[in-house]
C-alpha cells in the first residue's frame, strides 16, 4: 500500500481536499512565471506594469496561503494516521498470544515503531513539497504549450524518456530497499545479543571476538546494500539533471533552426524551462523518500498482518469482573511442544494431570531444562492452552473465561520486568509499600513517589525479584507463581523467604506455586511435584536430577549448610 492509498483509507480528511490545495498552490506558482513573462513583455507601459505588480502580489498571496494550508493539513493527516497505526500495533501486541509473539521477535517491532513510522513522518514535508511541485510543473508545461508548440513537444518527449527509464529502474531499487531493511533488522538482532549477552562476551574473549566478527560481517553487508541503494538514487538524480540540461539544449539550439520562434519567444521559453528545473529537481530528490515511505508502509502493514495472525481468540469485548478467589484448578492431559522451523518437535511438556487446591503451597522441582518454566507458562495460560485441558472450579477454560482465569495469577519469572510504576492495583497504600520495602531490606535502595512511581529501577536481579514480590502483594492476587525466585537471593534472605515469607503469604490466603531447586526447604510445601523431561510426577524424596534437555546427570541438589545471621524483626505481610 502506497502513501496516497494510506491517506485515502485511514484519514478523515479527503485526499481530494489536499489535492485541491496542491493544485491551487501549483497553479499560483506557475502564474508567477506567467506574470513575470508578461511583465517583461510590457516594456515601458507603466499602467500595464502596475497591473502586473498587483496581479503578482495576489498570486504570491494565494500561493502562500494554499501552500501553508497544504503543509499544515498534510502534517495533521499523516501524524494522525501514524498515531492510529502506533495504537493499532500496541493493541495487537497486547492481544497477541505469547508464543506467537516470541516467534515474531522484537526486532521487526522495534524497527516498525522507531524506524518505519519515523521515516514516514520525516518524509511528509518533502513529499508534500514534491507533490505541489508536480502540479506546478504540469501547469508550467501547459503554459509552455501556449508559448511554443515545438518547445512543448520537445519537453514532453525528453520528459517521457526520463520517466520511462525511471519506472524501469524502480522495481530494482525497491527490491534493494527491502533487502536493506532486512539486513538492518538482522544487524539489530545481533546488536541486541551483544547488549543482552555483554557479561558473557566480556568474560569469555572468544565469545566476544566471535560475536564481534558476526557484527562486523552484518554491518559490512548492511553498508554494501545501502551504498548500492545510494548509488542507484544518485545515478537517478544525475540522470534527471542531465535530462533537464538536454531539454534546455534542444530548445536553445534546435528550436531556432525550425524558423517557428522569434527571439523573444525563445527567451520566454528558455526562462520557463529554467523556472521548472528547480521544482523538477525537488521531485527527483523526493523519489527516494517517497520510495522509502512506501516500503515502510508495506513493512508496517506486513507486521500488522503477522500480529493480527498472532492475536489469540479471547473475549476482550466481554469484560468479566476480576476474581478474588477460587476453589481448584485441574489440568487434564495438558501438553505443549516446541517446534523448529520445519515443524519438528524439539521439546515436549506433558501430557500433565494435576489438581491444585486454593491455599495450597506447591513446589515444582527439577533440573534446568526439565520444563518447569514452560509448565508455569501453561498453568498460567500464557501459552494458549489446548481446549478442555484446564478447568477452573469445574468449568472448562475457554476463550470466554481465559482472561478471568489469568487474572488470578501474579507471576514472577526469572526475567521479571519492573515497570516504572505500580500498575494493576486497585489501591496503593504508600505506608504499606514503605513497610514492605523495610521488610524486604530495600528501603535504602528504592522508594515510592507520586503515589505509584518507583524512584529507581536500577537494581540487582535479587532486588528486582523482591520488588516483584512487593508488587504481587500490593496487587492482591490469590495465586502467586515463583520461578526460581530464591536463586538470586543471599543465603540469609533465601532462608527468610522460605521460612517466613511463604508461610505469611499462605496465612494471608494466597496459593503459592514455586519452581525451586532448594531441596532443604521442600518440607515447607504442602506438596512437591517433580518435573523431568517434560513429565510431572510426585516427588519421591530422592535427589533432584540436574536435567538438561535430552540428557540427565545425577546430583543431590543440596546446598552447603550455613549458619544464618540473626534476622531483623520484620512486619508481617498484609492479608487480603
General description of the model:
The chain has about 575 residues and is α/β, with parallel strands linked by helices. The protein has 2 domains: about 5-310, ABC transporter transmembrane region fold (Up-down Bundle); about 330-555, P-loop containing nucleotide triphosphate hydrolases (Rossmann fold), CATH 3.40.50.300. The chain has 14 helices and 14 strands. The strands form 4 sheets. A 6-stranded mixed sheet has the order 6-9-10-3-11-12, sandwiched between helices. A 4-stranded antiparallel sheet has the order 2-1-4-5, covered by helices on one side. It has a two-stranded antiparallel ribbon with strand order 7-8. It starts with a helix and ends in a 23-residue tail after the last strand.
List the helices and strands and how they pair.
Elements: H1 3-10, H2 15-41, H3 46-95, H4 98-104, H5 107-147, H6 149-196, H7 198-203, H8 205-254, H9 263-310, E1 328-339, E2 345-357, E3 361-365, H10 372-379, E4 390-392, E5 395-396, H11 402-406, E6 409-412, H12 430-439, E7 448-449, E8 453-454, H13 461-475, E9 479-483, H14 491-507, E10 511-516, E11 527-532, E12 535-538, E13 546-548, E14 551-553
Parallel strand pairs: 3-10, 3-11, 6-9, 9-10
Antiparallel strand pairs: 1-2, 1-4, 4-5, 7-8, 11-12, 13-14
Helix pairs in contact: 2-3, 2-5, 3-5, 3-9, 5-6, 5-9, 6-8, 6-9, 8-9
